[in-house]
Specification:
single chain, 6-stranded mixed β-sheet, 3-stranded mixed β-sheet
């Protein structure tokens, strides 16, 4: 009996060492698509979400780590067709979930309500899709007909330099950047956060901590706008204690950035996009002209492309 108890104890210890991934059907449409399979026994999406949350909490209480990934029924059907698998077998859904956990966006469960996890997971999926789309368009630009240099690679290097300059010249505090490019088949929007207070900035010698995936997506979208010459723009908002927020930005002009005037920034933020009506400006916000980036950051040829 003692041996059996020891085995059970060791089994519980081992289960805590196993990381798990749940393929989540985040919306009603995907949930209905899965109901075509007899082995998928849920018939109510809200009840399904409650069960998922219960499972997450149970695993957390047991000391198990769990991540969530978006489960796409169409991609699952294509996966099963390509692999010659029966999509109505739960084991094959598990195999597919294990694959998307390594290739797609995931969010770790750390006790958050599922109502908070789902939007974060969807945002992560949109961010990855935006990066993949922008990177594909950038790669298709090919080589410069004059000098033979890879246009996408040169644009990415130029965009990386601009992002560093923009962050280096920004006031201390939390920085929130938004880049939009409208000159592509689909409008692309990327966001970059660089959060640190003034004391941390000073202690770090001006270094800025960034999320690598977020920075990669942002730089890729900016590079695409520069390489295709927009139209597009970039806006920065900085926030620090006891000081008004500052908002400023640039438009894409040529293969560089051109500063927006304080009035242009004010108009952009205080005009309803749909109706064109004026909106009251936010209190405690300064709409201003951006800091100088240096001559290389403004309108002009990208490094290596003086033609």
């Amino acid at each position: 009996m003692a041996h059996t108890d020891d085995d059970r104890t060791m089994g519980r210890v081992l289960r805590r060492e196993i990381a798990g991934t749940i393929g989540l059907l985040a919306d009603e449409h995907d949930f209905r698509a899965m109901r075509r399979y007899r082995s998928f026994t849920f018939d109510d999406h809200l009840a399904y979400l409650r069960q998922v949350e219960h499972l997450l909490r149970t695993r957390a209480r047991q000391g198990s780590h769990t991540t969530l990934a978006l489960f796409d029924p169409q991609e699952y059907a294509e996966y099963c067709t390509a692999k010659g698998l029966d999509p109505d077998l739960p084991a094959n859904r598990t195999r597919f979930t294990a694959q998307i956990a390594t290739t797609g966006p995931t969010i770790p469960y750390e006790g958050q309500p599922l109502a908070d996890l789902v939007p974060a997971l969807v945002d992560e999926a949109v961010r990855q899709a935006t990066w993949e789309y922008a990177a594909t368009l950038l790669a298709r630009l090919g080589a410069c007909a004059t000098c033979g240099e890879d246009i996408g690679r040169a644009a990415f290097a130029h965009a990386s330099d601009l992002v560093l300059r923009i962050l280096a010249t920004a006031p201390p505090g939390d920085r929130h950047l938004v880049c939009s490019v409208t000159g592509t088949p689909e409008t692309l929007v990327a966001v970059l956060h660089a959060d640190a207070d003034a004391e941390e900035d000073e202690a770090a010698g001006g270094a800025t901590r960034l999320d690598d995936a977020e920075a990669l997506e942002f730089t890729t979208v900016l590079a695409l706008g520069l390489a295709t010459r927009g139209p597009g723009g970039l806006v920065m908002r900085t926030s620090a204690p006891d000081t008004p927020d500052r908002i400023y930005g640039w438009r894409m002009r040529g293969d560089g950035l051109e500063a927006l005037t304080a009035g242009e920034v004010f108009d952009a933020y205080c005009t309803d996009i749909d109706s064109g009506d004026l909106i009251s400006p936010e209190s405690g916000v300064d709409y201003c002209f951006p800091p100088e980036l240096g001559a290389d950051g403004l309108e002009g040829p990208m490094p290596g492309h003086h033609h």
